[in-house]
Amino acid sequence: MLKKETSRGQQVVDLVKSDSIVSLGKEYLEIGIDAALDSGALKDIPLVSTVVGICSSYGTVKNQIFATKLIKFLNQLSEIPQYERMIMIQKLNEDDKFAGKTGTTLIEIIDRMESEVKPELAAKCFSAYAQEIITYNELRHMLHAVERVPAFEINGLAKFAIATIGTYRQFDQSTLLAYVNAGLGMNNGGLDGGAILPTDLCRLFVNSGVLSLNGITIVQDS
After folding, report:
1. In the predicted model, is pLDDT for residue 202 greater than 60?
2. Is the pTM of this model over 0.85?
3. What's the number of CA atoms in the CB half-sphere (13 Å) around residue 133?
């Protein structure tokens, strides 16, 4: 039996499927969504007022933090066509983890992310899934990795995705261990102690277009 969506979950699903999701514009991204929320500059945008309503049950501080993350997630997701978003929701509702409660699960995923950068990255993962670039199983593993990797290590992830035995030492040990902990790096088991190299999951972030590295495409090991 499918679990019933919460009211907030259904509102999030409706937003994802809506044609009212539009880019908030460069000017808002430059000043920061949180600053724009503070100033009231976004109050007349229907998407924003809906998000603020969804977040109303949180405390004052957490309310704005979560609203900022959700708006950034939706803004990034708006880059794919509406019909692809609608198909994505339908597909997610058919899978075990999301079954019948996609919106509620999206809220839980976004809420667990400690940085405003991560919801945008998560949205790119969902976009890749919506466009059938990655599978549902790959989506789950990528979201798990996004949640576990420290936000301050994300900028170096694309570069690490092409690291080799000859270049991996350019990364700090703490960075390498952070990638290992997130399932994005692993020891190759060499007799000299081994090298920390990117996993197929790490390379997938670049191959799927979720992360870019100046147009370089990573070829996965066969």
Report:
1. yes
2. no
3. 17
